[in-house]
Amino acid sequence: MLTRKQYELLVFVNRHLHEHGVSPSFDEMKAALGLRSKSGIHRLITGLEERGFIRRLAHRARALEVTRLPENHPGAASRSMAPAGTVAGFRPNVIQGDFRGSLAGAVPAQGSQAVQLPLYGRIAAGAPIEAVRDNTNTIDVPAAMLGSGEHFALEIAGDSMIDAGIHDGDTVIVQRCDTAESGAIVVALIDDNEVTLKRLRRRGASIALEPANKNYETRIFGPDRVRVQGKAVGLIRRF
Q1: Does the pLDDT value for residue 59 go beyond 70?
Q2: CA trace torsion 63, 67, 70, 75 (10° rounding)
Q3: How many of the other CB atoms lie within 10 Å of CB of 25?
């Protein structure tokens, strides 16, 4: 599973290799993705390498090899890529994280006492990542778990909320809302870009996003940098 920037970099590197026979320089990658520093490229390359999409070739300059493409890319079988400047085939399975206006209403599952909710992929319960949305995915949830209003489901990635009983791979049921009381576990949108699941604490004019794991630090933000997208109201775990 890739973030949009990881996907864009993978597309660019693969296309550059096909067109020029050599991987792009860091300056070329930085310019192509509109990043301000090479450190961002280093992080993206490391993420792609850890996920098995690229390989660094030792003792060679500008030595990157694309080992595979995402399954949802139309060139995954042929390894042919989109034209320059495009990210064709990106489904997209990464969004900026604002769930407002994008939530489908809950649909009763036929023949059961369950409700079908949209399942919007993995959300960080550790370092914030972009929330993943795939509009084709749904999950059946017991109707008794839901109150009034709109709901959606998110799969958890990470262990920063483990002491609150939320584990990596769990599915959290979220009630859509714009505000939440101090102490609630919320889906928080940070700087209109990052989305994470944390406990919200109000500290004067500031907002703290608090993990439930001593290995992670509480992050403090000004009130204009954080928007509540929803409140956790239930949990589903598969064994």
Answers
A1: no
A2: 90
A3: 14
| Known active-site residue 214 | no
CB burial readout 1-19, b (16+ within 10 A) else e:
ebebbbbbbbbbbbbbbee
pTM (two decimals): 0.54
Where helices occur in the chain by DSSP H, the ranges are 4-20, 26-33, 38-50
Collapse the DSSP code of 114 into the 3-class scheme (helix H, G, I; strand E, B; otherwise coil) and give the result.
Answer: strand
Q: For the segment 185-221, what is each residue's pLDDT rounded down to a tens digit? A: 999 988 887 888 999 999 888 999 999 999 999 999 9
From the candidates 37, 198, 206, 214, which is the catalytic residue?
198
Q: Which of 5, 23, 160, 231 is catalytic?
A: 160
4-20 helix and 38-50 helix, angle to the nearest 10 degrees: 90
Query: What's at 162, amino acid-wise?
Result: I
Q: Does the active-site annotation cover 198?
A: yes
Rounded Cα gap, residues 126 and 168, in angstroms: 10
| Total residues found in the chain within this entry | 239
Q: What are phi and psi of 197, to 5 degrees?
A: -105, 115
Tell how strand 171-176 and strand 226-236 pair up: antiparallel
Sign of CA dihedral 64, 65, 68, 70: positive
Residues 10, 218: Cα–Cα separation, whole Å: 33
Contact predicate 209/188, CB 8 Å: yes
Measure the N-to-C terminal CA separation of the chain; round to a whole number of Å.
Answer: 22
